[in-house]
Amino acid sequence: MNLQSTPGGANQVFKNVIKDLSNEMQICIENCMSCHQICVVTLSHCIEKGGKHAEGNHLKNLMDCAQICTVSADFMSRESNIHSSICGACAEACLACAESCEMFADDEVMRNCAAMCRQCADSCKQMAAKH
User: Fold this and answer.
1) Is residue 4 part of a domain?
2) Does residue 4 register a pLDDT over 80?
3) CATH number at residue 114
4) What pTM, to 2 d.p., does this model score?
């Protein structure tokens, strides 16, 4: 099967692979992947906007969050024995990113990123506490 030429092919293969994981873990993986994506989009938005949007600590928060979300999803996907530790770190990075983005309340992109970061932090906290 050529995943590139099949509409939704890679996504369907992924869903088949993670179906054996707990529902809670599946949701957390999906939240992490969504959070990674929105942080990358928001990072680009901030660089384009410049000014306070492009200040170092804010950009670092976005990059940290995007990266740890990918790592967290990877660790959960392979059911790593230390995924709970990674999820704890992910929750911390997501909260820092949310707080940073919330400083730009008049910017819809930033509000959306903050909301997704908080959602991801909540699910990662649950994963860190239960496993």
Assistant:
1) no
2) no
3) 1.20.1270.360
4) 0.84
